[in-house]
């Protein structure tokens, strides 16, 4: 069935460079996440369920 | 610092909620009508305003921009105020936003049945309405950012990032895909042509799915799911990772809608690669949602809102796994143009968007009315009939898609097409279409039950229009206590404008890399010397083709498969479309491709086929178009159309606009005389003459000099 495909565009370089681009982007975000403080994450993730408190925001 | 007292605006939330319910019923009813038209042509109701070609865009626009659109605003206006501990920036802007959006919907509901359309899918509305959409969207943006600026919460929760990305990206998509040159109050031509127009349209179309049907809903999921389950989101870090990856990758994937077309191969490859990568951030969101419910599955058993959320997330996971699979060229070769795609989008639309909306409505309405839901039992009924509706919809459509896709490609041992008559493949799947509309009817019944349930809830209590709240104001000075506080994302979470600019840059990268070379490098769209502009009559005919929405069922792009070149003729080249403002490649083949239909049949065949399709193709499900013989072609627009085309670079001779109508009448007389020879008496000034002229021209130009055709495949 797939033999019916007459030609495939040879765009390997685009596939590889797009993957690389994403990997770099992914790594930047990844490094940032590793450095993120636990306290901050906890406060942020509790935000929707603690909104009735008058002083929920983080003390800087 | 003093504790500040203020109120949340619940009235605007309630209004958007009611609009969601009303337009949901309208949009889905129109969808059901369209579904029935595909197995019973009488359901086209015998008049031009309700034929499938005009009803289908009405359905898609109604469910996307009216149902989902209002649901987004309902969710955003509720959650934004609470996450920022502030009332909406301006009650007046909220009101303008609400009524402006409803007026736009009404304008769409009037213009689309009238055949006033640009033909770009999900962007069919003509230029004055496009401008209105831009204005109202800006009103929404000002209202949202105004609220963010006067907030009492320093950091922006992840839901708000999704809202910001939605606002920015939809603005960019809408503006770029609305570059039209008006020729009259309700008619315009896209400035882009052919391949370039196709790329812009599907960059838009794909990202409308991403940034209208996905990111705002993920934002709502990140707010409402923790609220419903009363526990924080599973992983906040995952939400950051999945947010940035999602908006970065999504924007590149548009070209997967154009695989095997004459779009440059490199752009197609980029589209495929990024589509595959899209699985990761999409599933990141789904997993984060489902794992938020870990240890709370006992609640899911009792709480109908959570049931809706679980099915919504599951449908999101299925659709976002299937999407990348469908963008693999081998699978796409079979699935594209079939009901498989219809099944795919409806898993997303009915499951993800629909069910999440229902979950939020059931949760939110009783809360802003400070009451209990009128009937939990009825909500449970809605859940089950809705789920059943999705199954009855999706399974037959998948079956129909596989069947038709394979039938199109099947050869006999002698090497001939097994089903040379396209109609045979359409008739084969009629029972599936009947089942699909039963699925749609079940789903709609659920929505009606919900509307009754919520109406009863609202009538039995009083809206808390202004809900009192209190919070500490933000201190002006920020004392950085630790170096970690300077981390870029923490800074961004406090600086909404910078956040918006960064999101904007990230979403612009993909679009620019794909569009700029396609627009500027000549070799990407090789021209063909024998391809000439349409004659005045053909151009008018083309606009009738657009008005009738023929593109809803007929593609105009032959893919380079033997199964297609055997059936239709030479595969389509980029250079053939350079004068097509807009492109009309289509996305679905309910009927056969028409790119090589020119010269295939006689004028008389086309005449009879348009008046009564079954006379030429027994069993055909195409609607009849008798009004084309009754209505006179409006030739007062010819000159302005030619001039507009000249402005857009179509090489009509200088001064052609003045003599165009003379040439038009000569060509029309010729066709009328030809029909007369076949005992068909029709005046040469009728619309049907123009549409026949256009159909007979389609795809014939390259036959003049076959040797000189450049290959860009």
From TrEMBL, chain A:
**Name this protein carries in UniProt:** CcoQ/FixQ family Cbb3-type cytochrome c oxidase assembly chaperone
Kindly list the residue ranges recorded as spanning the membrane: 13-34
Q: Which domain of life is it from?
A: Bacteria
- The answer on whether this UniProt entry bears the keyword Transmembrane helix reads yes
- Print the keywords alphabetically: Membrane, Transmembrane, Transmembrane helix
TrEMBL record, chain B:
- EC number, as in UniProt: 7.1.1.9
Q: Which residues bind heme b 1; low-spin per the record?
A: 59, 346
Question: Gene3D superfamilies annotated for this entry?
Answer: Cytochrome c oxidase-like, subunit I domain, Cytochrome c-like domain
Q: Where does Cu cation bind?
A: 206, 256-257
Organism per entry:
Pedobacter chinensis
Indicate the segments forming the Cytochrome c domain, all copies.
Answer: 536-699
Q: Which SUPFAM superfamilies match?
A: Cytochrome c, Cytochrome c oxidase subunit I-like
One GO MF term attached to the UniProt entry: oxidoreductase activity
User: What PROSITE patterns does the entry give?
Assistant: COX1, COX1_CUB, CYTC
Q: Its pathway? A: Energy metabolism; oxidative phosphorylation
Q: Which gene encodes it?
A: ccoN
Question: Cofactor note from UniProt?
Answer: Binds 1 copper ion per subunit, denoted as copper B. Binds 2 heme groups per subunit, denoted as high- and low-spin.
Q: Which family does it belong to?
A: Belongs to the heme-copper respiratory oxidase family.
Q: Does the keyword field hold Iron?
A: yes
- Protein name as annotated: cytochrome-c oxidase
């Amino acid at each position: 069935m797939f033999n019916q495909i007459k030609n495939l565009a040879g765009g390997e370089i685009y596939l590889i460079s797009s993957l690389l681009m994403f990997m770099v982007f992914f790594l930047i975000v990844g490094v940032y996440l590793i450095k993120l403080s636990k306290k901050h994450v906890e406060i942020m993730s509790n935000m929707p369920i603690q909104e009735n408190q008058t002083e929920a925001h983080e003390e800087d | 610092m003093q504790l500040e007292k203020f109120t949340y605006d619940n009235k605007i939330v309630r209004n958007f909620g009611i609009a969601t319910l009303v337009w949901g019923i309208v949009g889905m009813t129109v969808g059901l009508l369209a579904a029935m038209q595909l197995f019973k042509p009488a359901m086209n109701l015998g008049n031009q305003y309700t034929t499938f070609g005009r009803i289908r865009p009405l359905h898609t626009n109604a469910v996307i921009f009216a149902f989902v659109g209002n649901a987004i605003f309902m969710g955003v206006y509720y959650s934004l105020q609470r996450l920022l501990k502030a009332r909406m920036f301006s009650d007046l802007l909220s009101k303008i936003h609400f009524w402006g959006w409803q007026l736009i919907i009404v304008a769409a509901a009037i213009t689309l049945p009238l055949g006033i359309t640009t033909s770009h899918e999900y962007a069919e509305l003509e230029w004055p309405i496009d401008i209105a959409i831009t204005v109202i969207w800006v009103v929404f943006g000002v209202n949202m950012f105004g609220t963010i600026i006067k907030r009492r919460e320093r950091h922006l929760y992840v839901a708000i990032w999704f809202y910001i990305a939605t606002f920015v990206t939809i603005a960019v998509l809408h503006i770029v895909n609305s570059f039209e040159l008006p020729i009259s109050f309700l008619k315009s031509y896209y400035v882009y042509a052919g391949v370039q127009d196709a790329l812009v349209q599907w960059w838009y179309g794909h990202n409308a799915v991403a940034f209208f049907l996905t990111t705002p809903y993920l934002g709502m999921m990140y707010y409402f799911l923790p609220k419903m389950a009363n526990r924080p989101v599973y992983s906040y870090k995952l939400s950051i990772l999945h947010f940035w990856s999602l908006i970065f990758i999504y924007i590149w994937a548009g070209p997967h809608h154009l695989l095997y077309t004459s779009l440059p191969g490199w752009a197609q490859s980029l589209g495929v690669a990024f589509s595959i990568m899209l699985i990761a951030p999409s599933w990141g969101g789904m997993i984060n949602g489902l794992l938020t419910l870990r240890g709370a599955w006992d609640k899911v058993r009792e709480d109908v809102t959570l049931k809706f959320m679980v099915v919504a997330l599951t449908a999101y996971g299925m659709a976002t796994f299937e999407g990348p699979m469908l963008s693999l060229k081998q699978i796409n070769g079979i699935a594209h143009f079939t009901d498989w795609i219809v099944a795919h989008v409806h898993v997303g639309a009915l499951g993800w968007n629909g069910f999440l909306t229902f979950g939020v409505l059931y949760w939110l309405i009783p809360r802003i009315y400070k009451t209990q839901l009128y009937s939990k039992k009825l909500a449970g009924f809605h859940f089950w009939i809705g789920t059943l509706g999705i199954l009855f919809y999706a399974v037959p459509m998948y079956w129909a898609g596989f069947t038709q896709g394979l039938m199109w490609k099947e050869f006999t041992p002698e090497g001939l097409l097994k089903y040379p008559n396209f109609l045979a493949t359409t008739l084969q799947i009629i029972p599936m279409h009947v089942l699909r509309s039963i699925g749609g009817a079940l789903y709609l019944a659920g929505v009606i039950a919900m509307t009754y349930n919520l109406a009863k809830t609202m009538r039995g209590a009083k809206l808390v229009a202004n809900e009192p709240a209190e919070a500490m104001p933000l201190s002006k000075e920020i004392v950085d206590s630790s170096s970690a506080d300077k981390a870029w994302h923490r800074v961004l979470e406090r600086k909404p404008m910078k956040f918006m600019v960064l999101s904007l840059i990230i979403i612009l990268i993909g679009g620019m890399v794909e569009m700029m070379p396609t627009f500027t490098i000549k070799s990407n769209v090789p021209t063909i010397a024998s391809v000439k502009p349409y004659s005045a009559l053909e151009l008018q005919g083309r606009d009738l083709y657009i008005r009738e929405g023929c593109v809803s069922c007929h593609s105009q792009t032959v893919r380079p498969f033997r199964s297609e070149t055997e059936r239709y003729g030479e595969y389509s080249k980029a250079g053939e479309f350079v004068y097509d403002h807009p492109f009309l490649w289509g996305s679905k083949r309910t009927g056969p491709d028409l790119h090589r239909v020119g010269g295939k049949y006689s004028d008389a065949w086309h005449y009879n086929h348009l008046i009564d399709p079954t006379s030429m193709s027994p069993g055909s499900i195409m609607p009849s178009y008798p009004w084309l013989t009754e209505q006179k072609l409006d030739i007062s627009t010819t000159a302005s159309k030619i001039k507009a085309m000249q402005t857009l670079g179509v090489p009509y001779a200088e001064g052609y606009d003045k003599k165009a109508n003379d040439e038009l009448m000569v060509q029309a007389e010729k066709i009328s005389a030809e029909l007369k020879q076949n005992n068909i008496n029709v005046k040469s000034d009728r619309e049907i003459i123009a549409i026949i002229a256009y159909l007979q021209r389609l795809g014939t130009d390259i036959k003049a000099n076959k040797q000189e055709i450049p290959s860009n495949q």
